[in-house]
Structures are given as structure tokens and as C-alpha cells.
Design a protein that fits this description.
The chain is of the alpha/beta class. The chain is 38% helix and 23% strand. The protein has eight helices and eleven strands. The strands form two sheets. It has a six-stranded mixed β-sheet with strand order 2-1-3-10-4-11. Strands 7-6-8-5-9 form a five-stranded mixed β-sheet, sandwiched between helices. Helix 2 packs antiparallel against helix 8 and helix 3 packs parallel to helix 4. The N terminus is likely disordered.
């Protein structure tokens, strides 16, 4: 009887030592990072995030949308650790409202504007003034009040004296990806989008690269949110975005990586 009891106690202790470490590991919550980012960064950041997760055992949750949409969400109390905008304007607005960690801004990338059409379209474009011809009836751009790509496009069209002239032709997208989709779906003849968007599909062709002097330089700043519960991790993520490894990914997706230039 004594031997039986002793055996049961030994087995019980063995089970105890086997189970407790497992319980401890399962009970440990993996670090999380909430990143709000311009939708034009979707593919590059998803790829970079996979590598960062593998190296740091961090779960990254992205919220991709138009930069102004994200800005408004953050102003209304949405919780984020990192914000990466397609324009400094949204960052300046958040900074003015005291929502950013002081001196956390890092400019990561630049981009360009291009005019695109469906690959099968018989359209040529030597200058933007050709947009006024009758054969082009619908021009897709991002909504200037919401989408930075649309704001830049408006600047360029205004620079060439075309903004008022083309008003009846505009189809406004809620973000730059939606703007591109108007062309691929046949709902617009041409669209003004980022150069990086042309890497997404072979169904479009670039008709014209808008001259950079026609619009404000397209810069993507990354910042740490003041209300972030993971500021140290957020700083580490932004530092990782500045690494050469990340730069190669950004350049592969068509961006100009500032650290490499």
C-alpha cells in the first residue's frame, strides 16, 4: 500500500513539473504592435512585418487606409503605436493636437505621381493637357480632402491650369488603391496614382510621369503615437524600417528609400 501511494505521489509530481511550464508559456502574452499606415504601403509593410515578427516575436496588426482617414481615427481616440502617413500634413495635424511622441518623426520614403490607363487602351499622353480631349471622359483621382495622392494630383493639375477645366471628368477614389481600381474595372479611362501602384498589376500601363516640380514632394513620415502602450517597441519597429534590409524591400516595391539615397 505504501509503495502504491509513493508511486502515485511520484507520478503526481512528474505531471506537475510537466504541466506547469506549459501553462506558464501559454499564459505569457506575446507582444503586440498596432501600426496605422497609408494604404500604398500595404504590400511592402506586410513583407517587412513578417521579417520583424520572426526576429522579435511580435504580433503586428496593421490598419491600412487613406492617411487622412487614419488621422481622423487617431484624433477620435483610436489606439495605435505607430503611424506612417503618405504625407507630412497628417503628421503635423496630429502633432499640433499633442498626439505624437516628441521628436519621434522619421522620414522613410518618397514616391512619384504617374498617369495610367488600362493596358489595352489606345491612349497616348505627351502632356497633361491631353486630358482635355473628348476621348477621355473619366479621370480617376483620390479625393483631395481625404487621399494624399489626390491632394498631390490636384496640385499638379492646378499647376498646369487644368483643375477647373477637368471638373466634369473626375471620378474620386476613397484611397489610392480604389482610384487605381476604377481603371482596372473599366470605370475610368485614366487615373493619377503613385508610381508604386503600377507594380500591383500588369493590367495597366504608365502613360505619363508627372513632373515632380508640379506638386509637393511626396514624403512618408513614420511617428510614434503619444498614447502608445509600447513606445519602446514602436521605436524599435521604426528603426527597423530604416534598416538596409527594409530599404531593399521598399525599393523592390517602387519606393525611393531615403536612407539609401
Amino acid at each position: 500500500m505504501i509503495r502504491v501511494i509513493r508511486f502515485c505521489v511520484e507520478i503526481g509530481l512528474l505531471v506537475l513539473f510537466v504541466v506547469l511550464p506549459g501553462c506558464t508559456q501559454e499564459g505569457q502574452k506575446q507582444a503586440e504592435l498596432n501600426v496605422y499606415a497609408a494604404i500604398s504601403l500595404t504590400d511592402a509593410l506586410t513583407e517587412i512585418g513578417t521579417a520583424f515578427t520572426a526576429e522579435n516575436q511580435v504580433n503586428i496588426y496593421y490598419n491600412f487606409a487613406a492617411s487622412t482617414t487614419l488621422q481622423r481615427q487617431l484624433e477620435k481616440g483610436a489606439t495605435a503605436d505607430v503611424f506612417i502617413s503618405a504625407s507630412p500634413r497628417q503628421v503635423v495635424a496630429l502633432e499640433t493636437n499633442g498626439l505624437l511622441e516628441a521628436e519621434s518623426r522619421k522620414d522613410l520614403l518618397t514616391n512619384r505621381l504617374v498617369l495610367v490607363s488600362d493596358e489595352s487602351a489606345r491612349i497616348s499622353m505627351e502632356t497633361l493637357t491631353n486630358l482635355a480631349i473628348p476621348e477621355i471622359s473619366r479621370i480617376a483621382i483620390g479625393h483631395p480632402n481625404i487621399v494624399p495622392a489626390g491632394t498631390y494630383a490636384k496640385e499638379a493639375l492646378t499647376h498646369f491650369g487644368l483643375w477647373e477645366t477637368l471638373q466634369s471628368k473626375f471620378v474620386f477614389g476613397t484611397d489610392v488603391r480604389a482610384t487605381l481600381a476604377y481603371v482596372t474595372a473599366g470605370n475610368a479611362d485614366v487615373a493619377i496614382v503613385y508610381k508604386t501602384d503600377t507594380t500591383l498589376t500588369r493590367r495597366i500601363k504608365v502613360l505619363y510621369q508627372l513632373p515632380p516640380e508640379a506638386y509637393t514632394p511626396i514624403v512618408y513620415p513614420a511617428v510614434v503615437m503619444n498614447g502608445s502602450p509600447h513606445k519602446q517597441l514602436a521605436r524599435r519597429f521604426i528603426a527597423y524600417l530604416h534598416s538596409m534590409e527594409s530599404g531593399e524591400v521598399f525599393e523592390k516595391h517602387g519606393f525611393t528609400f531615403l536612407v539609401l539615397k
